[in-house]
Amino acid sequence: MSRLLSPVSEPDQNGRIQHITPESAGWEYVGFEVYKLKAGRSLKADSLNNEVCLVILTGKASVKTLKESWSHIGERTSLFEQKAPYAVYVPPSDAYEVTAETDLELAVCSAPAMGQYPARLITPAHTRFETRGIGTNQRHVCNILFGNMAAEKLLVCEVITPDGNWSSYPPHKHDRDLAPTETKLEETYYHRIDPDQGFVFQRVYTDNRSIDETMAIENHGVVMVPEGYHPVGAPHGYTSYYLNVMAGPAREWIFHNDPDHAWIIEADKLKASR
Fold it and tell me: How far apart, in whole angstroms, are the C-alpha atoms of residue 10 and residue 258?
């Protein structure tokens, strides 16, 4: 199995099914966890030296930090509704408690931070899905903690890709600290698939092919992208969802397309203009 792929595990005593740290991934910034909590169960943790984005994937929850609290947040019963999520931003040197009011799927996204911003609720009013691309490159993107919301390091978004389509495509990368040309961002992809017995493909490769991995990812799997290009393909009959978490030295997403495939962008523009 690829070292870049973290398959789903059985829930531990806290309901955790994914657990990726900078140490386990071999990088500096991104931490990522997923929990499946039964109604009435709670998750408590300190944010330590990290800013944290708690994404209510499905279900309804109450969330408390040291100074704030919110009840009855979350509306989705499926990740494929194309409905924007609720999320909570937690600064470093804080703590959070998430209580599942219904069965809950929760993502915990983290990166090192200094504490510039307070805890706050992110609602669907702060976010929205937008459709990008044409033809078999069409996908639906929702920025959760991106240009719509201030943070120190974290960038969080989700993408729904219809069956038979591609996303994160044409292949692009963001692994060099060369703004304004490109920025260096580590990235995780948390994959969900409908129907859930399906799979998607993701390739991660560098220009010199020091990394060149093509993976079949099943439901709840996570792909880690330390560097390189990283397109995703959804087979016929299966809709792809993924939650992206990015972080790096600067909180700016500037990507570089693979020169071999950049022609696709101009070809798509020509098609769209007709």
Answer: 37
pTM (two decimals)? 0.97
Give the separation between CA 94 and CA 103, rounded to whole angstroms.
25
State in Å, rounded, how far the first CA of the chain is from the last one. 45
Q: What is the CATH number of the domain that holds 170?
A: 2.60.120.10
What is the Cα–Cα distance from 184 to 251, expressed in whole angstroms?
Answer: 9
For the record, the structure tokens of 99 come out as 């209580």
Q: Mind listing the pLDDT tens digit for each residue in 4-15? A: 999 999 999 999
Domain of 243 in residue numbering reads as 11-264
Residue 2 maps to a domain: no
pLDDT of 121-131, one tens digit each? 999 999 989 99
- CB-based contacts of 59: which residues, under 8 Å, 6+ apart? 37, 74, 76, 77, 100, 101, 102, 103, 104, 105, 106
Q: Is the dihedral of CA 111, 112, 114, 115 positive or negative?
A: positive
- Backbone φ and ψ for 177, nearest 5 degrees, come out as -85, 75
Give the total number of structural domains in the chain: 1
**Residue 270 domain-assigned?**
no
User: 256 in a domain, yes or no?
Assistant: yes
Per residue in 61-79, pLDDT (tens digit) is: 999 999 999 999 999 999 9
